[in-house]
Amino acid sequence: MDRYKRLASNTLILALGQFGSKLLVYIMMPLYTGMLGTDGYGAVGIIVNASMLIMGIITLSVGESVIRFGLDDKYDKSQVFSIGLITTVTGLIIFIPVVPSIGLIEFLSGYSILIYLYVFTGSIKSVCALFVRSTGNVRLFAIDGIFTTIINISLNLLFLLVFNLGVLGYVLSVVLADLASIIFLFYMGRLSAYIKVFGIDRQLRRLMFRFSIPMMPTTIMWWVTNVSGTFFITAVHGLDYTGVYNAAYKLPNIIALVAGIFSQAWNMSAITERNSRTIAKFYSDVFNFYQSIIYVVAATMLLFINRVLGIMAQGEGFEGAFRHSPPIILAVVFTCFSTFMGSVYVASKKSVRSMLTAMSGAAVNILLNFLLIKPLGINGAALSALISYVVVFTVRVIDTRTLVFMDLKPVKMIVNLILLIIMSVIVMFIENANFYYISLVILFAVIVVINYRAGVSALQFFIKKKRGVQ
What we know:
The protein has helices at 2-27, 29-58, 62-70, 77-95, 99-102, 112-134, 138-162, 166-188, 202-212, 215-237, 239-250, 253-272, 279-312, 325-348, 351-376, 378-399, 410-429, 433-450, 452-467. With 470 residues, the chain is mostly helical. The longest helix is centred in the middle third of the chain and has 34 residues, at 279-312. The chain is globular, with a radius of gyration of 22 Å. The N and C termini lie close together (9 Å). The mean pLDDT is 83.
């Protein structure tokens, strides 16, 4: 039972530390959309997405190795952190001559320096934060999330409302908040004590690179599946459409936020419990609870999407953005499932297989973007993402059975997905207000009833953990 208690404890700490801070970002969304407009909001999305891709490439995705090897007691933590930090800084230096070429891309023209600053602070912050989590200092990791968000939002208010700096102000807010986070983590986590410039363990470095380098194309594949639609929309329909697409994506990302908080704790458990003889049951039990939470959160999202997104996405051009959200919500559901299955690869150090399964989704996504975005616009991008994630999840379910044989509760999964699809169709196409709300409430209630038992069992366990009941 200790493994469940550890998972519950880490999840609770991360939830308390991160959910409130992340929620503040959503509260700020009316400011972002109102001050930036569809054009500026689209530009912000392009900058962030491009930066995330570059970060994964120039750092060799070494952050994945930092968390994986840092959690393993067989390896010296100072060596793990030093290898991760040196690799990151080296990649950032090598990237400097390439920065001007970013401006050659039409919709990134003028943003080269901003993107580099975003990549610079984001890459170093990522290594520091992941290492802190790998040492078991989950509380500091969670507090840093709150601290960074407060700094970010304070700077948003200053740069957007007071100085009216637009896209520049938004990106600078993130950069400076990440810089503050790096200083905070170094001081509170005493990270300087873990730095070794000389005497690097070459064998460990090879092991870390052997794990992380296949994760680099995996990062690219996930990026393609996650955000290539944004670039296709920009190229075909312009930044106005991209801004609406980003707004439609914002609320569904709350599902990913909830799942992401849990996944951070889950990956720690999956790595540390990988050699257990009852690991298959552990994975199955956790996934049963996990999928129940995802279904209920997704159903809640579909129930309130029109009202909430109408409040969050302020400004001309964002009307009706909620009609594009349902396929995105379904896509995020399968993103969460695929990420869970990916934890099997992380725990077993099978990063090449993770890469190959991600490639299947990326290939499907690119093909569908070409076929669907021009005729269907935003909905074409959303459908492309949805189908891609379904493909990745299906491939991973089949592939991971040779590593861990999980009971995924297929009947429960099929029934819940059918109900979510019906809700999605109603949100997208039904105009009659009475039928719209009554049918959504009924379907929502059915989903809650189906997933009630798994949710209550998990909640009771969390309450026991919080009270210290053994």
